[in-house]
Amino acid sequence: MIDLHSPLTSAIAYWEPRRLLYNAWLLAVVVATWFLDSARTIQGTPFELAQQLFMLAVLANVAYCAAYLVDLAALLSGFRAIWLRRRWMLLAIGMLFAAAPAHFISRGLFSAGAP
């Protein structure tokens, strides 16, 4: 039987504190999109916008959980020692990848024009 206790504990200890960094990064992308978009005309009411942004934040955090699948697989492999030194790259790639949809979706929420 495979012992999942140690890898799971390691994954939680690594990824959960970094979730705050991930969310701060995506918030910065959305705020930058708001300020840099010259045609800021919000579609709908502020309450509707808040609901849409909340749903996008929830979906972004669900997507963040995909890192656990990669991390656990690497932690259970023979490459554990190398992975522990390099898993920050998964965080960096994930943050860069998440920035693109965050920008384009928030741009669509903040402006009436095409994305």
Strand-helix topology:
Blueprint: H1 5-36, H2 46-64, H3 66-75, H4 80-86, H5 88-110
Helix pairs in contact: 1-3, 1-5, 2-5
Overview of the molecule:
With about 120 residues, the chain is an all-alpha fold. The protein has one domain (about 15-110). The chain is built from five helices and no strands. The chain has helices at about 5-35, 45-65, 65-75, 80-85, 90-110. The chain starts with a helix and ends in a 5-residue tail after the last helix. The mean pLDDT is about 90.
Number of helices: 5
Helix content: over 70%
Structural shape: elongated
Number of beta strands:
0
How big is the Rg?
18 Å
Structural class: mainly alpha
Helix and strand pattern: HHHHH
What's the number of domains?
A: 1
Overall pLDDT level? 88
Largest sheet: none
Roughly what fraction of the amino acids lie in strands? under 5%
Instruction: Please mark out the parts with pLDDT under 50 across 5 or more consecutive residues, or reply none.
Output: none
Question: For the terminal residues, how far apart are their CA atoms?
Answer: 51 Å
What's the short version?
With 115 residues, the chain is mainly α.
Question: Notable features of this structure?
Answer:
115 residues, mainly alpha, 5 helices
